[in-house]
Specification:
The protein has one domain (2-314): Glycoside hydrolase/deacetylase (TIM Barrel, Alpha-Beta Barrel). The protein is built from 9 helices and 15 strands. It has helices at 2-26, 44-50, 89-101, 109-118, 136-149, 175-183, 227-249, 265-273, 306-314, and strands at residues 69-74, 77-78, 87-88, 105-107, 126-132, 154-157, 187-190, 198-200, 208-210, 217-218, 223-224, 254-257, 276-280, 293-294, 297-298. The strands form 5 sheets. Strands 1, 4, 5, 6, 7 and 15 form a 6-stranded parallel sheet that branches. Strands 12-13-14 form a 3-stranded parallel sheet, with helices on both faces. Strand 8 (198-200) and strand 9 (208-210) form a beta hairpin. Helix 1 packs across helix 2. The longest helix is centred in the first third of the chain and has 25 residues, at 2-26.
Length: 332
């Protein structure tokens, strides 16, 4: 009897030890670390351990959720990720393979907005694919894969950076490239014209928040903005972006993804005044009809494991942190 108890005790201790290793290794698997430059390379050992937690057998006929939509959020998807926030193209392809094998159905932005605003029907296990910032690699690397898999997608553009040779940073798209993709079925919507940044929230310039979240210090005025000046700034910027999108693409609806997920009640009121009826945050969750300020799940980052993402989607994208995620649902 003592021998049996001893064996069981050793077995339990071994399992706990493996679980401890798994948690330690998996902490950096999914999202990029919070402090730039401190990320660790995902290990093969962590991959193997993760794959023991759930079945990898595809379930193409299973219904995970109905009358709801998971919105996935990506930033740069490229063959050679330049930073921890970017997703390797090969991992993106694996994600698509996993979604397809497990019975997820990709929908268009039109289908999504009709679902949110008018309770239109969507397929079971519906997924909307969204990309932020309008990187040039979306045209050179991501778009060919989307086309191959016949995946409808939306890219949210910072319109002041488009066809702008003076833009500082990672190269962005041109209107010519955007029009080519749009003709092939890719949608493009508002990620502001020139408000994709943080601003100082005090005269001492020691605190910051996203520019769409309230009055900020104006270097031009030498003081803090008034509430009215803030509202006018946001109104003018979002209106400018949508006018550009209409000029080049003739969009028949207005949709906005808030930079950094930053918004306020006043910002939402401005959006509605401009006819922007559907907006997106960076909060995790799943969307039901009437959820006009939608949830998005961060599916990018160099530490992504496609099987972990799809398992999370099978669970209905609960608002709790993704399995083995480190840090918040970060995005720009």
């Amino acid at each position: 009897m003592k021998h049996v108890i001893f064996k069981r005790t050793m077995l339990i201790m071994s399992m706990l030890a493996i679980l401890g290793i798994l948690v330690y290794e998996a902490r950096t698997i999914y999202h990029p670390p919070l402090v730039k430059g401190t990320h660790r390379t995902r290990t093969a050992n962590a991959d193997r351990l993760v794959r023991h937690l759930f079945s990898l057998t595809p379930t193409p006929d299973k219904v995970y959720y109905q009358n709801k939509v998971i919105v996935l959020m990506y930033h740069e998807v490229t063959k050679t990720p330049p930073d921890p926030g970017a997703l390797k193209l090969s991992n993106f392809t694996k994600q698509l393979d996993e979604m397809k094998a497990n019975g997820f159905h990709w929908i268009t932005m039109k289908e999504y907005t009709d679902f949110i605003l008018h309770k239109a029907k969507v397929p079971d296990n519906a997924v909307l694919m969204t990309f932020d910032d309008g990187y040039e690699s979306f045209y050179t690397d991501t778009f060919p894969v989307l086309k191959k898999y016949r995946v409808p997608a939306t890219n949210f553009l910072i319109t002041s950076t488009i066809s702008n040779p003076k833009h500082i940073g990672i190269k962005k798209l041109t209107w010519e490239q955007i029009q080519h993709m749009h003709a092939e079925g890719v949608d493009f919507y508002n990620h502001t014209n020139d408000q994709h940044a943080y601003g100082y929230t005090n005269v001492a310039r020691t605190k910051e928040k996203p520019l769409l979240m309230g009055p900020v210090y104006s270097k031009k005025l030498g003081r803090m903005e008034t509430e009215d000046e803030f509202k006018q700034r946001v109104y003018n910027d979002l209106d400018t972006a949508d006018k550009k999108l209409f000029k080049y693409l003739h969009n028949d609806r207005n949709v906005l993804a808030f930079p950094y997920g930053g918004y306020t009640k006043e910002t939402l009121e401005i959006c509605r005044a401009l006819g922007i009826d559907v907006t997106f945050t960076v909060k995790r969750g799943i969307n039901s009809p009437g959820q006009t300020n939608g949830y998005r799940v961060n599916a990018g980052g160099i530490h992504n494991i496609p099987e972990v993402l799809v398992q999370y989607m099978k669970e209905g994208a609960p608002e709790r942190p993704l399995p083995f995620a480190q840090g918040p649902n970060k995005a720009s």
